[in-house]
Each structure stands twice: as C-alpha cells, then as structure tokens.
Amino acid sequence: MKKIKEILAQTEFSKADLVCLLQAEREERQLLFEAAQARKVATVGKKVFFRGLVEFSNICAKDCLYCGIRKSNEKVLRYEATDDEILGACRFAWENRFGSVVLQSGELSSPAFVKRVDRLLQAIKKMSNKELGITLSCGEQTKETYQRWFESGAHRYLLRIESSTPDLYHKIHPQNDLHAYEKRQDCLKLLKECGYQVGTGVMIGLPFQTDEDLAEDLLFLKKLDVDMVGMGPYIEHEDTPLYAYRSQLKTKQERFDLALKMVASLRLLMPDINIAAATALQAIDPVGREKALKIGANVIMPNLTPCDFRKEYQLYEDKPCLDEDAALCRNCLEARIELAGSEIGYGEWGDSKHFYRRQEVTK
Ligand code: 5AD
Ligand code: FES
Question: Is the confidence at residue 363, as pLDDT, over 60?
Fold first, then answer.
C-alpha cells in the first residue's frame, strides 16, 4: 500500500487513495489535516463565511428513515414561522453583516408552498437592498419551481445526496417514488441548469456504510463538479426507523473523526469549493465545527431560527443551540472562529470560487 506522504503529494486521487486517507490514524491523520489546512489557505484563504440558518418550517411530506422531522414522527409539533418571523431573522443577519442566509424547511411541493417561498425571497431581497445572499434548502422540486425561485433571488441551493451509493440510499429511504435516488440525481442537474451554485453532501457513519462507500461519495462530489458541500456525522434519532440499527454504529467519536477526515480529503480533492462545517459535528463535540474549519471547511451556519421553534427542528439527537438567541450565538461563534485561526468575511456573499471558475470554462 502507498504511504500517506506519497498520496498527499498528488493532485489526483483514486478510490484506493481516498480509502487510505479515510483510514489514516495518528501521525498519518495529522499529516492529512496539515496538508488540507495548507491547501485551504492557499486556495480559498483564511476567511470563514457566515450563513444565517433559518429553519422556517418543519412540515415535511417525506419519510426519510434517519430524520427526526419525518412525516410519520407524530411526536413533533409542526410549525411554520410567519413572514414577520422569517424576515426578522433575515434582518438580524443583514444588520449583523452575515452576508447570506440559508432558508431551510421540510420538503413540500404544493403550489401554496412554492408561492410562499417565492414571496419570501422577494421580500428578503427588498428588505436588504438586494445585499443579502440567499441559499435555499427546500428539497426536490420541479425545474419550473427551481427556475422561479432563482429568478426571485435565490442564487445557491443545497440538496444533499445523503449517500451516493444507490444501495445505501435505498436502505435509508422508503422504497417508493417519493424517495427515488434517480430523482435526487436529476434535481441536482436541474439546479445546475438553472444557474444556481449547487451544494450537496452526505451523512458519515450511517449504518451499513463502508469506507469504500465514503470514498465513492467523494468521487461523486468531484464528478458532479459541485460548488459547495455540507456533510456531517450521522446521529441517531430515537423516533426514527434507523434507530433500530444503533448497535451497528461506530461510536459517535469515531463518526466525528471520520467526518473530519472526509472534510480534509475533500479539500484536497476539490480545493476551491466552499465546505460547510456541519452543525451535526457540534452535537458530538462542543467545538466540532471549529475543528472542521481548521482542517478544511470555510463556511459556518449560525442558527437564526426563532428559539421557540428550535426544539421542533431536531433532525437528530443533541442538536446544539436549542435555546441560544441569535446575538449570543454570534458572539460565541466569533470567539471560536478566532480561536481556530480564521477571520470572518463580514458583509460578503462568500460565493464559491469554484463556481466562477466553472462559469469561465463554459463561456
Ligand atoms: N443525523 C445527521 N444528519 C441528519 N440529517 C437529517 N437527519 C440526520 C441525522 N439523523 C441531515 C440530512 C439532511 C440535512 C438537512 O440534515 O443530511 O439533508
Ligand atoms: Fe450557538 Fe455558540 S454557536 S451558542
């Protein structure tokens, strides 16, 4: 087998190389982290960008087997934030020079939902003199819907593939048309065609998932040529079907370590993309997100969801920041980011450099 040092000196990586990086321990793991950190600073610099996260509704038509707000979980109180609440959170982001917000919700596709999101996009743009960047994370939609939302002001879209291995995707979703792997793939293509900066990602440490699957995930991200990635550890949730497999899971610490190695390996594989430090990291380690920023991530999403709703947006157990208010979160984050040796890109959209390079190539 190749030595880690040899692999780290390369610019192209095979599946076997990536498996080797994901399995690095002790000094070798340290070498991987140092290489990723250096590549990050050399390519996207030391700046970290804020995206204020507004989880504006937990009403979901889907039943993903891992997710705490799945349709069949009757323990969740369903909510929909009002326009005023959503605009208030966005105003906070704008006034505090966050640069951008992410509007996230459960997945619905009714005409009323599509229209509401459209209206919100226009209202946020108007409120902020078009200064606030908007990322959407509202699941699978038709091309018309994606197009309409793009025209109304969303310019980035997050839609995680969750696992790029079809077999594993099927194991963690119900077997029906509403949860088809091909549909998810198609949506990612549609988003690109509409002109969005496209982000996707996977969960790490899922039951039945192997290191080879994760290496495939990394190659999938590269092949899809995505602009942004958000990926974090899978964390079990008591009220979901996947909870039955919890005895097969790696320890949380192992899943956390693997997630960091995924972030570092991805930074080497796709040096100029935006990589988010996933909130799920912080559910395992109180400074988990800062650790990810240090070794490759460059985006963080402080939670701006109105506090009353947060406990009803528990995708997984121990989700952090349940009762922190937005201002507190910001102070806390600032201190932490400085600790991680980075600086904050205040008032900037912090677009993916990769996206602009991609545009130049196709011009
Ligand atoms: N553990 C970790 N991440 C989860 N997500 C949903 N449920 C879980 C879980 N149990 C992630 C999915 C989804 C994103 C919004 O949250 O990857 O795309
Ligand atoms: Fe939310 Fe610190 S990040 S309180």
Answer: no
Q: Measured at the alpha carbon of residue 90, what is the angle toward residues 325 and 298, in degrees to the nearest 5?
A: 80
Q: What is the band of 31 on the pLDDT scale with cuts at 50, 70, 90?
A: very high
CATH number of 35's domain: 3.20.20.70
Distance CA 305, CA 106 (A): 14
Euclidean distance between CA atoms 24 and 32, whole angstroms: 8
Give 321-331 pLDDT, tens digit per residue: 776 766 667 66
Cβ atoms of 59 and 105 within 8 Å: the answer is yes
Number of domains in the chain: 1
Question: What domain range includes position 157?
Answer: 4-362
Chain segment 121-158, per-residue pLDDT in tens: 999 999 999 999 999 999 999 999 999 999 999 999 99
Does residue 360 have a pLDDT over 80? Answer: no
> Ligand 1 mean position to 13 CA, how many Å?
27
Structure tokens at 149: 């939302």
Query: Which DSSP category does 160 fall into?
Result: -
Is residue 339 pLDDT above 80, yes or no? no
Binding-site residues sit at 60, 64, 67, 137, 162, 184
Distances, alpha carbon 213 to alpha carbons 24, 167, 317, 328, in Å: 16, 10, 24, 38
Q: What is the pTM of this model?
A: 0.95
Pocket of ligand 1 (CB under 6 A): 66-67, 160, 162, 203, 232, 234-235, 237, 280, 315-316
| DSSP code string of 178-230 | GG-HHHHHHHHHHHHHHT-EEEE-BEES-TT--HHHHHHHHHHHHHHT-SEEE
- DSSP annotation of 141: -
Could you tell me which residues are annotated as the binding site for S-adenosyl-L-methionine? 162, 184
